[in-house]
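Checklist before submission:
- one chain only
- standard amino acids only
- sequence pasted in full

Submission:
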Amino acid sequence: MMRAAKKRIGNWIYVGSTAVGEGEGIHVGEWDASDGTIGNLRLAYACIQPSFQVTAHTPSGKLLLSGHQPQQDKAALSSFRVMPNGNLTLINTVELEDQPESFIQIVLDKTHRALVSASYRTSKVRSFKVSADGHLSDAVSEFTLRGSGPNVRRQTTAHAHGAVVSPDNRFALVNDLGSDKIMVYKLDPATAKLTPNDPPFYQAKPGSGPRHTTFHPSGRWAYSINELDSTITTMSWNARTGVLTSTGSTPTTEPGVDISRNRAGEVIFDSAGKFLYGCNRGAAEEILVYKVSSDGQLSLVSRTPLGGKEARHYAISPDGGYLVVAEQATNFASVFRRDQVSGALTPTGKKYPVNKASSISFA
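Returned file contents:
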């Protein structure tokens, strides 16, 4: 007797990459929330180095926006409509002068009408307006970050890296890994215009290399994972003034690990704000789980070996039951089961090949 074909449920999963050549482009697969599997993983849009992307559910349908590199000295930001079969239909593309691996991170505001981007190599911070039908405008705001830090190998100049929007949608923050600052901009969601806040930045510890910042869903705290000194900084957030104040620092590595060989990476929350997920790359290849206390401080729950190299990015599935990791150096999207009570991760053993996998998003 033939078994009925298994019905896939849930969402589409998209995997970006930094590949140049074989397998370059945005990949799509069928996400099955019942068992954490990805079916029919395939190339959805061929392009060079679509290193970071975001998805949005809007009244006009699902959108995906991604940076990529049409030429060596140009950057592109494209908007796509997500079709019922998961394929991507291009809406429009905005091209700018830039360098390879541009748009190291992009983020949409809460209305999905304003996009903020960070470019690592040229230290550019930009914002774009997104129309109701998904069309991207030319850059509304553009700033070039300046500065340096004490790390002679990584901090000779500014490097815009992470971008995040505050929970109340009034501010956009951009981590500058090169000068140890977190820039703060006032955000006008209606126009996508950015205006430097007063004060315009939070000064991080010299040589720490702030990479990405995430907000606790409550809006009370923000957390910066610092690539160069392998720490996570806990900060109180003043939503009225846009001011960050450090309240603690948590090492990401175990005692005795050579942090000069390690790079702390991504940092995200679960939707309930109970657990924060970080990672180490290099000296340690692992995903970290922290519990958040009532005062915002972190306590380590677990360290889970990646089973690969270079956790460039990861995302929690919409149902909360899984975490999917982009293994950039070992060329996989790998799946971990997530215990929603304890926050702990367990590798499922499911790994899906994507050359230079760099970002994960669900739609």
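Reviewer check: The chain has one domain: 11-362.
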